Amino acid sequence: MTETTPFDELLPATRRALLHRLAVGQAEGRTPSLVGAVVRDGQLVWSGARSALADQVPDADTQYRIGSITKSLVAVLVMRLRDEGLLDLADPIRAHLADRLAAEGADPSVGDATIAQLLAHRSGLAAEAPGPWWERTPGELRPELGDVFGERPHRHPAGHTFHYSNPGYALLGALVEQLRGAPWDEVLRREVLVPLGMTRTSATPEAPHANGWAVHPWADVMQREAVEDMGVMGPAGQLWSTAADLARYVAFLARGDDRVLSAATLAEMRRPANAPEGAAWDDSYGLGLQVIRRDGRLLFGHTGSMPGFLSTVWVSPDENLAGVALANATSGPSIATLVADLIGIVAQHEPPIPEPWRPLPDVDSELLALTGAWYWGTTPFLLRLRAERWLELAPLRGGGRGSRFRPEPDGTWIGLDGYYAGETLRVVRTEQPTHTGATDPETHLDLGTFVFSRKPYEPAESVPGTLDPEGWRGF
C-alpha cells in the first residue's frame, strides 16, 4: 500500500477517506492493482494505490492502458483543426477523406457523416468493427478503413440518434493524419502531450507499466490478457498513460491552455450534443467528452476499457475538482463510480472556499447606468455588471431565460450560455420628446430582436407590433 501527496494540501482525514475508498474499490472489485488521483485547482493534491502484491505496488508514474479516454484526446486534435480554420464541424468527412475512403474500399455512405456527428457518436455508424473482436486481435487483420466498416457500415440514419461508434473515431484519426500529414499519435505527442507535460503517455507501453489481467468471475484466479496494436483502430483506444499524466490532462480539460485549446472550445466540447432519453438524463455525450450527473454534481470526462484495463477521468468544473482512476482488470471495479466518489469525498470534507468579494477596479458610468431592472414585455429581468465589462441577465422571479454576455470590440455583447448563447445584445438609444419640447435619450436593449425596456411595454416606439392605445387599465 502506498499513498503519495506531491502537493500536500489535503487534510489527513480527507486523505484517509480517499485511501479507504480506493481500498474498498480494489478489494470489492477484485482487481490486481488500482491507482487513483485527485486534482484540485489544477494541481495534483493526492494519489494512492492498492495492489494484490505487497512488493508490486504501482504509483502515479505507472502506465496503464486508458482505452477510450484516447477518443477525447483525438477530439482535442480535431477541435484544434477546427479552431485553425482547416475544417468545419458541419463538413461531411468525405470532404477531407474522399480519396482515402475510395482507395481503401470503404462504403461511400461512410463519408456522409459530418465531423460533429462523428465526434458526438451521432453518425449512425456501427458500434464495432466487423470480424473477430477487434480489441483482442492484431490491427493487421483490419489494415485499411474499408476493413473497419464492412458491407453494412450504418446501423441508424446519420444524425438520428446517439450510437457509440468505435470505427467512427478511426475516421477522425484518419482526418487528423490527412490534414497534418503525419500519424495521429505523432501529431498528438507534438501538439498536446508535450505542451501539457504528459511525457508518460504513449501509443505503446513504456516501463514501468502494469500488465493486463482477466480475473475469473467466480474464483480468485487470473490470466494474462494479450496486448495488441490496434492499427487503424488506434484512435478508438490505443493509448497508455499514468495517473500523474492524466492529472495534467484533467487540469487542462478544466481550465484550457491556449497552447492547445482555449477554455471556450473545451466548454463547447462538453456541452451535451444528444437529446435525453426519458424525462431526465444522467448520461450524455458532447464533442468527444462524456457528460454525467452524479449525486447532484455535473461531471465531464471519459471512461475507458480494454482487455486487462479500466480507466476513468472526471472533472467537476463547479468545484475545481477532478479525479483519475486506473485498474489492470478486464472487469470488476466500477471505475467511473469510484472517480465520482473521490471527487465527492474532497468536496464534502473540504468544500471550496469562495474568493473574497472585491469591487470592480474602475467604473464605467454608461455601463453602470444600464444595470438594474429591465422588462421583456411584462417579464422583469435584472442586468448586472461584472468584471471586464461582462454582463449578466437573469429573470427576477420564477424561471426564465438568462445568460452571461461577453463584450465585443464593436460595443455589443455575445451570449455565452442558455437560450441566448451566440446571440447579440445591443444597447439602442433613441431621442424621445419631453413635455418641454426638448429630447431625452431613451434606451432599450435588443437581444436577438427581443426588446427589453425600462418599463413594461414602454416606450411604445421601441416595442415591435402595436400596443393598445388605451394603455394600462383596470378590468
UniProtKB/TrEMBL annotation:
Pfam families named in the record: Beta-lactamase (PF00144), DUF7586 (PF24491)
Beta-lactamase-related domain ranges (all copies): 25-344
Superkingdom classification of source: Bacteria
Domain DUF7586: 363-454
InterPro entries: AmpC-like, Beta-lactam-related, Beta-lactam/transpept-like, DUF7586
Protein name: Beta-lactamase family protein
Species name: Streptomyces buecherae
